[in-house]
Design a protein that fits this description.
Its main location: membrane. The chain is an alpha+beta fold. The protein has helices spanning 2-29, 80-89, 122-127, 131-142, 150-154, 157-162, 165-176, 194-202, 234-241, 252-256, 261-271, 305-313, 351-354, 360-369; strands spanning 32-34, 51-53, 69-74, 97-102, 106-108, 111-115, 182-187, 211-213, 215-218, 221-224, 230-233, 277-278, 320-322, 324-325, 331-333, 375-379, 382-386, 393-394, 404-406, 415-420, 423-429. The strands form five sheets. Strands 1, 2, 3, 4, 5, 6, 7, 8, 11 and 12 form a ten-stranded mixed β-sheet that branches. Mean pLDDT is 76; it is low at 1-55 and 407-450.
Length: 450
C-alpha cells in the first residue's frame, strides 16, 4: 500500500509540474514581460510588478497602444482560474499595462495577483464575520490546499468579502501606477471592446474629474455598476488617493453595513468632489440575450440626409445661377472631335444628347430626357450632367468663360425630382424659386449619415 501511495503522489507532482511548465511557456511565447519590483513604505511595490503586454499578433496591432491607459481587473481566488485565464490570453493581452487584484495574493503563470484586502483595517477584519472566509483563504494557501474547493463550502462568503476590495483597489492602484490619463476598472468577466474604448477616451478630457459607468441605483442614488466597468480619469483618481494615505480604510466600517462596494465607491468619490456620470450604453451590464431593444439613446432615429438638406443646403438653393459650379460632371457632352473623360460615344447618344453642347438650353433639354439627370451645368460648349443632387461652389469666369448651372432638371414648375431605387419619384419645390414657397418636405431618403 505504501509503494502505491508513493507512486501516485509522484505521478501527481510530475503532472502538476508539467502543467505549470506548459502554462508558463504559453504565456512567455505570447510576449509577456514582468516589471521588476521595487520596495515602498507600504511594503508593496512602489512601481507595480504588473504585466506589460507586447502585442505580437495582427489582432492587437490593428489599433495603436496607449501608454496612458491602465486596466485594473478585480477577481476572487475561488473563480480566478475559471475566468481570468481567458481574459489574459485574449482581449487583455492587447493592453500595454494591467493590474490584477483578488482576495488572495498569488501568481498565475507570470502574472502577479495582488491582495486587495491587505490594508483593510485590523478592527474591521476582527469585527466582521465577512473576513472569516478571508482568513480561511490565507490558511488554505499556507497549507497548499485546493482553494477552488472553498466555492462549494463558502456559499455567499466570497461575494460578501468582495465589497471591501473596491476602495482599497483604487488606493493601491494609485500607489503602484500614478499619473496615468485613464484607469479602467473591470471584473474578470467584463469584456472591453478595445477599439471603441480607445476611440471614445480620445474624445474625453482626462484632466477633468471623470467617473463614468453603467448606472445602477440604491436608495435613489446612481452609481457605476462595478461589473460593467468603471472609468476614472487620472484627475479623478488623483483627487481621491493622492496625499491621502489610508483613505480606503476609513470606509471599512461603513462597508460592514452596506451591501454593495461599488455604491460605497460612489459615496467616497463624491466626498472628494468627484461626481458620477452614467455612460450607458457605452458601458453596460447586459449580455446579447438581455439587451433591451427599444427606445433609448442607442435606438433613436439616425441623422438623415433630408435633415442636412433642410438645415444646410435648402436655404441656399436657387433655380439658376451664373458663375457657379454645381459639380455636374458625371456625364459630359462636347462638340464633335473634342475628346475627353466621361463622354459617351456619339453612336450611343440620343438626338437631344448630340446637341447638348450647343447651348445652355440644349443642355437642359438633354438633361430632361434622361431619368438619371438631376441637374446640369454648361460652359464653353460643354454640357455636364449630375446623377445626384449637389449644391456646389462659387466659380469665377476663366478667360471669358461663364458657368451657368440649373439646380434642377428643367421642370417648368421649379421642382427638384429625386429618384430613389426604393421609391418612385419624389418632388419638392425649390425654396428660393419665385414660383414656389419653402415647405417642410420629406425627401423619402432612408439613408443615415455615417
Amino acid at each position: 500500500m505504501l509503494l502505491r501511495f508513493v507512486s501516485l503522489r509522484t505521478l501527481s507532482v510530475t503532472a502538476f509540474i508539467f502543467c505549470i511548465l506548459i502554462l508558463f511557456t504559453t504565456f512567455r511565447l505570447r510576449g509577456h514581460l514582468i516589471i521588476p519590483n521595487t520596495s515602498s513604505s507600504w511594503g508593496a511595490p512602489a512601481h507595480s510588478p504588473s504585466l506589460e503586454l507586447e502585442p505580437l499578433d495582427q489582432y492587437c496591432n490593428t489599433f495603436p497602444l496607449s501608454e496612458d491607459i491602465l486596466v485594473i481587473v478585480k477577481t476572487g481566488a475561488n473563480e480566478i482560474h475559471d475566468k481570468l485565464s481567458t481574459q489574459l490570453l485574449t482581449s487583455l493581452r492587447c493592453y500595454k499595462d494591467i493590474l490584477l487584484f483578488s482576495d488572495l495574493e498569488q501568481n498565475i503563470g507570470p502574472f502577479k495577483v495582488h491582495d486587495a484586502l491587505k490594508h483593510v483595517s485590523n478592527t474591521t477584519k476582527a469585527e466582521s464575520p465577512d473576513f472569516d472566509y478571508y482568513r480561511q483563504l490565507q490558511e488554505d494557501k499556507k497549507n497548499d490546499q485546493d482553494i477552488s474547493s472553498l466555492r462549494r463550502k463558502s456559499g455567499s462568503a466570497a461575494w460578501n468579502l468582495d465589497k471591501y476590495k473596491f476602495l482599497h483597489m483604487l488606493e493601491e492602484t494609485w500607489m503602484m501606477k500614478p499619473h496615468r490619463k485613464w484607469y479602467i476598472f473591470i471584473e474578470a468577466d467584463t469584456y472591453l471592446v478595445r477599439t471603441n474604448l480607445l476611440l471614445w477616451l480620445e474624445r474625453q478630457d482626462p484632466s477633468e474629474l471623470i467617473y463614468y459607468g453603467s448606472p445602477t441605483y440604491v436608495n435613489g442614488q446612481g452609481f457605476a455598476h462595478g461589473g460593467s466597468g468603471v472609468v476614472l480619469s487620472g484627475a479623478a483618481l488623483s483627487k481621491f488617493a493622492e496625499n491621502d494615505q489610508g483613505i480606503a480604510a476609513r470606509y471599512d466600517k461603513m462597508l460592514q453595513s452596506e451591501a454593495f462596494g461599488d455604491y460605497v465607491l460612489m459615496k467616497a468619490l463624491k466626498d472628494k468632489g468627484v461626481a458620477f456620470n452614467g455612460r450607458w450604453p457605452m458601458l453596460q451590464a447586459e449580455k446579447p440575450s438581455t439587451i433591451p431593444f427599444g427606445p433609448g439613446p442607442d435606438n433613436g432615429e439616425p441623422l438623415l440626409l433630408q435633415e442636412l438638406y433642410q438645415d444646410m443646403v435648402g436655404p441656399k438653393v436657387y433655380a439658376e445661377r451664373e458663375d457657379w459650379y454645381n459639380l455636374s460632371d458625371d456625364q459630359l457632352y462636347r462638340p464633335p472631335g473634342v475628346d475627353g473623360d466621361r463622354q459617351k460615344s456619339r453612336e450611343d447618344m440620343s438626338a437631344l444628347e448630340l446637341e447638348a453642347h450647343v447651348s445652355f438650353e440644349h443642355c437642359g433639354r438633354a438633361c430632361e430626357e434622361q431619368p438619371r439627370c438631376f441637374q446640369y451645368t454648361y460652359s464653353n460648349r460643354e454640357c455636364g450632367f449630375s446623377y445626384s443632387y449637389r449644391l456646389g461652389r462659387k466659380r469665377y469666369p476663366e478667360s471669358g468663360k461663364t458657368f451657368i448651372v440649373l439646380l434642377l432638371n428643367g421642370y417648368d414648375d421649379f421642382t427638384l425630382c429625386i429618384y430613389s431605387s426604393f421609391r418612385p419619384e419624389l418632388c419638392l419645390p425649390i425654396p428660393n424659386s419665385p414660383k414656389a414657397a419653402a415647405p417642410s418636405v420629406n425627401f423619402g431618403w432612408d439613408f443615415p449619415v455615417i
